[in-house]
Amino acid sequence: MMKDYYGELATIVYQLSKPIGTALNGDIDYYLERIQANSSKNQRVLEIGSGTGRALIPLLEEGVNIEGIEYSDEMLSLCRDELARRQLTTSLYQGDYMTCQFPHSFDTLIIPVATFNLITAHKGIQLFLEKCVSDLKKGGRIIFDIDLPFYPELGERQRSQYEWDSQKSISVEHEITKIDWLTQEIHHLYTYQLWKNQRLIDTQHQQLNIKWYGLTEIRLLLEQAGFKNVVISADYEYELAPSDSNQTITIEATKA
């Protein structure tokens, strides 16, 4: 069965490769720093695409009043288990961000790693940004990372193996199935195979489409949606201007 989100095996691999608290190039510390730059007491933060809680849980442990929304029930279930194990509580929402009605507005929305590129490929960036504006308080901020193209080759394949326990392992094959330079999208196909004692038990497929944006383009889109004071930073150094497409790019903007 083909899924366009993180299913059971994809969630297990994510947790094995990026356990709770794993920082990707220093992203968790950076997001904590930028959240704390807002001096508002008890500010409300929402992570869109909170997944297993890789970033949400350590931010919660640092005292951030953070909630999360995640489409994948498998990822959210793992996050809930981790919260219970650590005796932490927060509000988690399961479903499509575009249709979710929250009980309150937020001071800050965060979207670490390439989740922004993934969500907007499915939902359309303008509608997504307008929804973000509506969920923020006046003067609230959005902070997110974006991926830029990495010179992919059509048909390029990568294979990896993850040991689950002494009897089970999961093999992953990743293939680039489509590159559309006109719509600025790359389509990725992941095949997950669960093995037990060297016997194939299950196979699951995942299709992820990633959309990329130029820096001037994303600035204009944010301003058109109702944001101002757009700051583009590189390698998790606030206001460090990007100089290379291989750098981690983070965008921060304020609701007008």
From TrEMBL:
This is Methyltransferase domain-containing protein. It comes from Vagococcus lutrae LBD1. InterPro entries: CFA/CMAS, Methyltransf_25, SAM-dependent_MTases_sf. Residues 45-140 form the Methyltransferase domain. The lineage of its organism: Bacteria, Bacillati, Bacillota, Bacilli, Lactobacillales. CDD domains: AdoMet_MTases. It comes from the Bacteria.
